[in-house]
Write the structure tokens for this entry.
Amino acid sequence: MFDNIRADLHRKREWFLKEKSWYVRHVRIFLEPGTFAVIVYRYGSWVNSLRIPVLKQLLYFFYMLAKIVVVLGFGIYVPSKARIGKGFTIHNFSGIFICEADIGENCIVFQGVTVGHLRGQPKPPKLGNNVFLGAGSKVLGSVNLGNNVAVGANSVVVSDVPDNCTVMGVPARVISRETNWITEKLEGRSVEY
């Protein structure tokens, strides 16, 4: 749990707070709703993995209290049964719904994002590593998003997306098949648009 939280905080600092002051990077980061929601998710996942029933029930009570604050106070729903890799970052808050999806490492989520099932489809969405979900984007159904995929703002993804693509639109269509800007950003190289 603590390794995942450290990786999540590191990714948020590197992506969004690199040029900010020490106070912002080390104190205010814990006051942001997105960071709090990620920490609550990690705690809930850890509680679910416990094998001691009495301890699990006791700790689950505290998880439920924190989850109520996250859902009602911040508008972020991430179930503890979702499988999310290290470096998970929720930058903004409000209107975020993530089902029991399988998400790789370094996923970045903005406000208004939905990752969810469609009726009649048994499998949740599966997202690869280094996926960027722009504000208001939706990933719906049993779709697979590859590695290094960027989903544009307000786009609706209802079909599979291969690696290194940028998708936009309703329904989302591939607009670029050579997207490497996420990897370049994570490695600290400058990016030209």
Remarks:
- The mean pLDDT is 89.
- The first helix runs from residue 2 to 16.
- The chain has one domain: 2-186.
- The two ends are 37 Å apart (CA to CA).
